[in-house]
Structures are given as structure tokens and as C-alpha cells.
Automatic annotation (TrEMBL):
SUPFAM superfamilies: NAD(P)-binding Rossmann-fold domains (SSF51735). This is Short-chain dehydrogenase. GO terms for molecular function: oxidoreductase activity. Pfam families: adh_short_C2 (PF13561). Belongs to the short-chain dehydrogenases/reductases (SDR) family. Keywords: Oxidoreductase.
């Protein structure tokens, strides 16, 4: 198994990507600690993991509360002995589609502050319990907006680019301590737009403006801009995350794994 005897913390573990990664990490032998703000979502993921014999624990944690995140990371390390892998899969609802002339400063800053604040808080909390004799891995998530030049995504694009810059610089800083930092850049996924989900809520205004459903907007609109003419699947993101977190990717750090299905080629 790729992650046998590893201890993994997933923030946003009740969400679509976080939950998918938790299930694969557990399947690959990791002891998984999932944290988030909605107990019902965490319990649903934990139920799936436990049903397959995986080891999982849940915790209600507000990732905007630095003290709460620090205390949770300390508790995980005290219980498990170490933190070997961490992923921040927290979503921050934000505007997409509004041009500069109509975009407020608050809406522009919402994803920039939200995504980068939680990434800083969670990375700082887990890094204290990583590395040295046991290799540590911090995984980050960004989006194609980090490099796409399209109108109406100013805040989104700046936050995505910031997450990738954070990944590169943190990798350089933590490498001497035997900690790798690797980014994953997926596109939107088509198997997570259920009503009330982050994906559905994020793209509903754009879909409505184009006269289509969210599913049609994703499968036809966004997918048409990729080389593969489709969007990545949750399973593909989760399986990639497991590989990157494993010792098989031990020479990889400061890099961004491009899972955009060819929306970006780099």
C-alpha cells in the first residue's frame, strides 16, 4: 500500500475533493484525520472509510481559527505520534464572472484572503509535527485560473496563483527538514455538482447566464476548453494525491501536478 503507517490530516475532509482523497488515503493504509466545519459531511466520509476497514477520526475545526487548528494538529500528533501528510481541501465561495468595473474590493479579496489564510494556518500547524526522521508531505490545491488569462476571474486567478507561489516557496523553506510540498492543479470536476455543493453554487450564476444547467456548463462549456474534451474526475485527483503523498514521489517537491485535462499545457 502506498501510504501504509502514514498519518494524514485532511482539512475540508467532508467536501468532494477532501472526502475522495480521504477514502483513497485510507484504502492505501493511512490513518486519516479529517477536519471540517460540518459534522454530517465528515460523518458521511468517515462512514465510507470505516466500512472498508480504514482508520479514520473526525474533528470539527474552523480553519480560519489559527488557535483551533494548532490545537487540533497538536492533538493528532500526540495521538498518532506524527503527522506525515497534510492536505488543505478547504473551499472558499467567491465570485466568478464579474469584470473589474463591477467587482467590489470585498469580492476581489474574498478568495485571495480566504484561500491563502487557511493555507498558511494549516501549513504552519502541521509543519511543526513533520519531517526529520519521518518524511513529511504537504499537499496544496490550486486551479487553472492560476495561469489562464480570461475575463471575470480576477480574485479567483490571483488566489490560485498565490497558492502555487506559496507551494514553491514553502517547498524551498521546508526541504532541509525533510518535508516536501507539492501542489495539485485540477479543473472543476463533473462528478460533484450536486445541489448545494461548492461546485454547484460556484458555477450556478455562470451557468444561468449561459442558459444552461450547471452540469451542461461543466460538461460542454468548460470541458470544451480542454485537450481531452472532458474534466478531471474526483477519483483521478484522489489517486494522484495518494501517489504524490507516497515515498514513490519522494524526489518531487516545489512542483505543481497539472490535472486540468489539458486546459493548461505546461
Amino acid at each position: 500500500m502506498l501510504l501504509e503507517d502514514k498519518n494524514a490530516v485532511i482539512y475540508g475532509g467532508g467536501g468532494a475533493i477532501g472526502g475522495a482523497v480521504a477514502r483513497v488515503f485510507a484504502r492505501e493504509g493511512a490513518r486519516v484525520f479529517i477536519a471540517g466545519r460540518t459534522q454530517a459531511k465528515l460523518d458521511a466520509v468517515a462512514h465510507d472509510v470505516a466500512a472498508t476497514g480504514g482508520k479514520v477520526e473526525t474533528a470539527l475545526v474552523d480553519v480560519f481559527d489559527q488557535g483551533a487548528v494548532d490545537r487540533h494538529a497538536d492533538a493528532v500528533a500526540a495521538t498518532a505520534g506524527s503527522i506525515d501528510v497534510a492536505l488543505n481541501a478547504v473551499s472558499v465561495m467567491h465570485d466568478q464572472g464579474t469584470p473589474l468595473a463591477d467587482l467590489s474590493l470585498e469580492e476581489f479579496m474574498r478568495p485571495v484572503d480566504g484561500f491563502l489564510r487557511t493555507l498558511f494556518i494549516t501549513s504552519k500547524a502541521v509543519a511543526r509535527h513533520m519531517g526529520r526522521a519521518r518524511p513529511g508531505v504537504i499537499l496544496t490545491l490550486s486551479e487553472p485560473g492560476a495561469k489562464l488569462a480570461v475575463p471575470g476571474i480576477l480574485g479567483h486567478a490571483v488566489s490560485a496563483a498565490g497558492k502555487e507561489a506559496f507551494t514553491r516557496v514553502l517547498a524551498a523553506e521546508l526541504a532541509p527538514g525533510n518535508i516536501r510540498v507539492v501542489g495539485i492543479r485540477p479543473h472543476a470536476t463533473v462528478d460533484a455538482p450536486a445541489a448545494g455543493s461548492y461546485t454547484a453554487d460556484l458555477f450556478e450564476p455562470l451557468a444561468a447566464a449561459s442558459g444552461s444547467s450547471v452540469q451542461e456548463f461543466l460538461e460542454v462549456g468548460l470541458a470544451s476548453g480542454t485537450l481531452l474534451k472532458r474534466l478531471p474526475r474526483l477519483a483521478e485527483i484522489a489517486e494522484t494525491a495518494a501517489f504524490l503523498a507516497s515515498d514513490r514521489a519522494g524526489a518531487m517537491t516545489g512542483a505543481i501536478a497539472n490535472l486540468s485535462a489539458g486546459a493548461l499545457v505546461d
